[in-house]
Each structure stands twice: as structure tokens, then as C-alpha cells.
Amino acid sequence: MIRAVIFDLDGTLVDTTHLYLDVYMRILQEIGISVDPKTVQASFGKKARDIMVDVLRAKGITPAKIDIESIVDEIKEAFMKRLQEITILPGAIPLLESLKGKYKLAIATSGRAPPAYNILSTFGLLPYFDVVVTGDEVEKAKPSPLIFLLAAKRLGEDPKNCLVFEDTVYGVIGAKRAGMKVVAVATGANSREELAASGPDLLINSLSEFHPSSISTM
Q: Sheet holding 131-134: strands in order across?
């Protein structure tokens, strides 16, 4: 029986995918790395550091030769300056309203705490959640199940009683590895076809399509 619902943040509740991609591409260009945007976006769902490692390896660059942490800090700083460009995704607020008080709610985002809390506060989302877990708090981020398991632990729930909403393949895989049910939402980095291949329990085009009453059948 589902007792808790865990949401990813970027690309699931708020529309940040294109903004993040724009920031990554600009900064990569500034440091002389030319890469296909699809290569960068394919790693979305992971921590920023892991995304950079993937990009460097795709270009045949040894990650140890690059100051990745400085680049990641620059990316986060640039992103924070453009928070006003973010919008909340359709159906997010109505869904949260319908779930609040009936289920324990959590955020499990690979992003760092400062931007995550800033976004949650800006859009008035923070009061909906009992727990917020960010990528800073786990050694391995998605597709590792650790962030989801930590969220379940803090909620005081068995993973099998948790339902996850995710927009990325890595998020879906991580949640499934945690032993949780997963709803994939095609509003972020991955296409509907890519998400379907990752094995979610349900695939929707938007949070607006999800009917809370269907949770009882999952």
C-alpha cells in the first residue's frame, strides 16, 4: 500500500531542463569544450559533477585533468542568477494539493541544496513536503537508489510503500532499484520513448494527467 509519495524537482515539478542545458552549453563553450547538447542532456538526472564527468569522457578528456568542482560551482552560480526564468509545470500544484494530508510527501533531487530550497521557496512548494533530500546528502546520486532510500527512511516508510514521480531515465532506474513504484513524467530531459524503456510502472505526459485515485491500485 502506498503511504508516501516522493517527487523529483527539476523537470518534474518545475521546468528547468532548458535553462540548465543553456547554462551548461554556455560554460562548456567558454572553457573550450564543444559538445552536442544531446550528450549533456542525456546525463540529466545525475549530480552536476557526474554530468560533467560524462561529458568529458564523451570528448575523450580525462576528468582528472579538469577542475570539475570549479566548473560545477560556476554552473550553479549561473543557474541561480536565472531563477526568475523558471516556471512551475502544469498540474504540479493541483496534484500536491490533492496529496497533502493523505500521504507523506518528499523531494528527492540530485541538485544541490541552495538552488533546490530557493526554487521550493520561490514557488511556495516547501510547505507541501515533510522531507527534502538533495544530492549533497548522498555519496552516490541517481541512478543509485541511495537518495530514494534516504527519503523513505526520513519519512519513516518502507520503500515498497513509496511512489516516485520522475522525469529522467536515471531517476526511474534509481527509484526502481530502491524497490519503489514509479510514475515517469515526460516533461523533462528524456523523451517518452526513453522513459518507457526504463521500466516505470506508469508513464504520463504531464502531472495534469495523473489521477490521485489511481494510487490505491499501484
A: 131-134, 104-109, 4-7, 162-166, 181-185, 202-204
| One domain for residues 33 and 43 | yes
CATH number at residue 73: 1.10.150
Chain mean position to CA 161: 20
15 is an active site residue? no
User: Where is the domain boundary, 52, 83, 114?
Assistant: 83
By C-alpha distance, which of 181, 154, 183, 190 is closest to 40?
190
- List pLDDT tens digits, range 119-156: 999 999 999 999 999 999 999 989 999 999 999 999 99
Element (H, E) at 208: none
Q: Is 8 a catalytic residue?
A: yes
Q: Which of 8, 15, 50, 167 is catalytic?
A: 8
Which residue in 10, 15, 50, 167 is the catalytic one? Answer: 10
Whole-number pLDDT of residue 206:
97
The residue behind cell 554556455 is 26
62 and 111 inside one domain: no
**92 and 166 belong to one structural domain:** yes
Mean predicted confidence (pLDDT) in 22-42: 91
pLDDT 10s digits, 98-122 = 999 999 999 999 998 999 999 999 9
Shared domain check, 90 and 71 = no
